[in-house]
Amino acid sequence: MKILVTGGAGFIGSAVVRELISGSAHAVVNVDSLTYAGNLDSLAPVAGSERLAFEQVSITDRAALDRVFAQHQPDVVMHLAAESHVDRSIDGPGEFILTNINGTYTLLEAARSYWASLPDERRAAFRFHHISTDEVYGDLHGTDDLFLETTPYAPSSPYSASKAASDHLVRAWQRTYGLPTLVTNCSNNYGPYHFPEKLIPHMILNALHGKPLPVYGDGSQIRDWLYVEDHARALIQVATEGVVGETYNIGGHNEQKNLHVVQEICALLEVLAPARKPTGVAHYRDLITFVKDRPGHDARYAIDASKIERELGWVPQETFESGLRKTVQWYLDNEAWWQRVLTGAYRLERIGGDA
């Protein structure tokens, strides 16, 4: 098949593209506008593949999307393009409304028009897979509660509210127009090629530079952590085997307090990088600093992933311990990648030189 991936230069999107090219015979069209979070360096392992095409296109540009659909004739759309950083959404929600809501609407309409033009057999096989987040459900306060596919939506931040809106649009286009859609909601991802503003890479790189490791509040917020390569495999399985109209929650079975995550990173760095400890730092954990909690900070997320396990047979391959060790080691081994992000060089060398 030919699979169109929006946001394929982002963290999760690039993992999906790498998995599709290296682990299947499918062709991929990567549609990414290359905002700050889009990084073509993350696709270096598969960049030479003849089965990979790249289109620098925004999902808010209907004319460009129509051209992409007409030219590439995809069989499946995997929609990952989104603004995704909660702190950025609090500081400037407008971009989140534009990309996550208006962009999803524009993509849905372009896909619907293309889908309607297909011959009967191809129209019946077409799929639109929308990738979302567990943050649309709000948060959990009970220690045993889990997010189900039927959990009511209660988003807390501009980011999660914009993703909730996009989820509703996708389901409405399936019910109203018959567009064959699927939705997945995932827990917190981590792993290689993660943009340094996110918690785990931010802590790794700050520690290596002897900078404070800022923990919101008392660090008691709980997240369910999902290794990004496990998530990529799950997404591809849903896109190719999932039932139209269904929602699948994807989680890693790895609930951890934020403070514990940071402490584990410090412990791994003591083992894996003792010689890189900055001057004057006795222990990496000494860099942990508690800062004022952010507004509307959700207390706990936890996914019940039993449906995708039961119906599609997917289970995560990594534990939190094995995945975190792989992640820390990857950042230690791939300084060239993250240095280009920190300096902005990855943006200066883009098509057209747009910085």
Query: What count of domains describes the coordinates?
Result: 1
Q: What characteristic shape results from the CA principal axes? A: globular
Name the CATH superfamily classification: NAD(P)-binding Rossmann-like Domain
* CATH topology description: Rossmann fold
Query: Sheet with the most strands?
Result: 7 strands, parallel
What's the β-strand tally? 12
For the CA atoms, what is the radius of gyration?
20 Å
Assign a percent range to the helix content: 40-55%
Oligomeric state of this protein:
single chain
Helix run count: 13
Tell me the CATH architecture.
Answer: 3-Layer(aba) Sandwich
Layout of helices and strands:
Elements: E1 2-6, H1 11-23, E2 27-31, E3 52-55, H2 62-72, E4 76-79, H3 86-91, H4 94-116, H5 120-125, E5 127-133, H6 158-177, E6 181-186, E7 188-190, H7 199-208, E8 213-216, E9 222-227, H8 228-241, E10 247-250, E11 255-257, H9 258-272, E12 288-291, H10 306-312, H11 320-333, H12 335-343, H13 345-348
Parallel strand pairs: 1-2, 1-4, 2-3, 4-5, 5-6, 6-10, 7-9, 8-12
Antiparallel strand pairs: 9-11
Helix pairs in contact: 1-8, 2-4, 4-6, 7-9, 9-11
